[in-house]
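Before drawing any conclusions, I looked closely at one protein, both as residues and as discrete backbone shape codes, quoted below without any editing:
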Amino acid sequence: MAAVADRSVAKEIVGHLRELRQRLSDEIRTYPTPIPRCDAQFNHLYEQLGRLARDLDAIEGTRSERAAVEAFLATEPYTDDPSERDFRARVAATLR
């Protein structure tokens, strides 16, 4: 039964990360131009998107659903959005 729960949570994590990736991509795409090279906010968004993409690839490539859940929880949050904190707390609670 735990494997089924892990699988469900792992799928939910992948969906969550894909949604975040889309939101960050949209925010970058609609960022006001021209964008100076020293724009810290834009650079931060771009770095977050890159990190998220790498983490998503790693999580999707993990054979074990439990390992995918643990890998997600080991990452730093990608946004300051309270919904991400809530999601991470809910995922962490599934491991208890």
